[in-house]
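anyone seen this seq b4? input:
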Amino acid sequence: MPYTGNGPWIGRPFRGLRSVVSLYPELVTVIVRADSRIHDLPDLAGRRVNVGSQGSGTRATWDAIEAEAGWSNGQRVQPVKLRGSAATSALCSGEIDASLMIVGHPSPLVSAQQTACAVNFVAIDGPAIDKLVHDHPYYQRGRIGGAAYGAAAEVPTFGVRATLVTSASVDARIVGVIAKELLTHLAELRTLHSALGGLTAGEMINSGLTAPLHPGAAHVYEELELRD
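predicted toks r here
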């Protein structure tokens, strides 16, 4: 978390960071082949998993998961760094056992993987995730699947919310105009992408914000009577 200097930003807090509005959930999404015997987080121990590049948000989240899981060196996953179509083909061919991404749903990346070969989602929950979400308030519970992917049931996981941020030094009038346009055109915003379809004003100005609200945004939300 850059504002407080946690995770990959240890020792480098960005106290000038300010939130404007939060948007859709971006969920930890672990995909395996349909014929795999991997169903939940413990099943990933020792497997070849595409976890992203060092320094990426995806890799930082996986490192946090693995730390909470408390696995020994022999149990830790065999990390692989692949992107896009390379990850898709590697999963289908069996070169890797699982692929991790952090995305909003429904996602074209997930749909592309489904088209390439039959896959399932891995449930990312349990005591380790309970503690991770409890200790890091910018993480939130979520569910994947259902009608979006033709799945019989939703799969539990967690993630963050995509958030529009700015700097404390940006003119409050500019931030205020942006914030007001977003909140007063919410119905139109919901139609722009399926991941935005469930947006509510209350969540957008309160949920998953990783830094204090910019004064320009806070003023607009008070003006619109969305905050006390």
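The chain is about 30% helix and 25% strand. The mean pLDDT is 90. kinda curious what u guys think
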